């Protein structure tokens, strides 16, 4: 908001001021061309006026750059906080249940695949924070540089933890599904063997 107001102020001031300076310069040139008795004084005033105007333009440009830099820094902090909040929210959504049977475990496995797809969408936002932090760190020193590093580190560490937990859960679900499938195969095989045994025992014994 402040940046936009100053940009508008700077634009209006530059336009109006340039018109007035140009008019003053034209008047001074006319006086000098007409051979005014105070030509030297008029020329000095003209030079002083143009120098003051150049200083004012430089001051406005410097102020505009400072506001732009401050705006970019605050935007980085806001984006970093938003990214951290989203990563932490996804971390809280990660369940611990593995399922008590094969259908439940397979359903949880499918849900986790969708979950991993969702968190992958966060990678672009995290990467943007990391890239912005690296770029801004070159322009700042001291406390601001440390603050930039803290924000970036918080996001990167939370993102690393989220990915680690997600990968760990994926492995657990894979193991759980594999275990239930093995148990089902064993149960089916035992039932089959029981059936074969009954058939064998049920046959008429030879006399």
The proportion of strand residues reads under 5%
Estimate the helix proportion, in percent.
over 70%
Task: Give the radius of gyration.
Answer: 38 Å
What is the average of the pLDDT values? 85
Largest sheet: none
Number of H/I helices? 5
Q: What is the CATH topology classification name?
A: Methane Monooxygenase Hydroxylase, Chain G, domain 1
Identify low-pLDDT runs: none
Q: Alpha-carbon distance between the termini?
A: 105 Å
CATH architecture: Up-down Bundle
**Series of H and E elements:** HHHHH
Shape: rod-shaped
Q: What is the CATH class name?
A: Mainly Alpha
How many domain regions? 1
**What is the tally of beta strands?**
0
Q: Structural class per helix/strand content?
A: mainly alpha
Organism: Piaya cayana
Protein name: SPTN2 protein
GO molecular function, one term: actin binding
InterPro entries: Spectrin/alpha-actinin, Spectrin_repeat
């Amino acid at each position: 908001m402040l940046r936009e107001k100053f940009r508008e102020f700077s634009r209006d001031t530059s336009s109006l001021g340039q018109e007035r300076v140009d008019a003053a310069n034209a008047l001074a040139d006319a006086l000098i061309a007409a051979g005014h008795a105070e030509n030297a004084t008029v020329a000095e005033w003209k030079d002083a006026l143009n120098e003051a105007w150049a200083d004012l333009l430089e001051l406005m440009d410097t102020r505009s750059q400072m506001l732009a830099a401050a705006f970019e820094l605050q935007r980085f902090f806001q984006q970093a906080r938003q990214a951290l909040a989203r990563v932490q929210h996804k971390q809280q959504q990660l369940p611990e249940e593995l399922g008590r049977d094969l259908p439940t475990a397979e359903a949880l496995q499918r849900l986790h695949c969708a979950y991993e797809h969702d968190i992958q969408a966060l990678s672009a936002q995290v990467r943007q924070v990391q890239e912005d932090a690296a770029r801004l760190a070159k322009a700042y020193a001291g406390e601001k540089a440390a603050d930039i590093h803290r924000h970036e580190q918080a996001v990167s560490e939370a993102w690393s933890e989220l990915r680690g937990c997600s990968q760990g859960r994926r492995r657990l679900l894979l193991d759980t599904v594999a275990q239930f499938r093995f148990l089902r195969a064993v149960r089916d095989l035992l039932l089959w063997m029981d059936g074969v045994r009954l058939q064998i025992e049920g046959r008429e014994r030879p006399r």
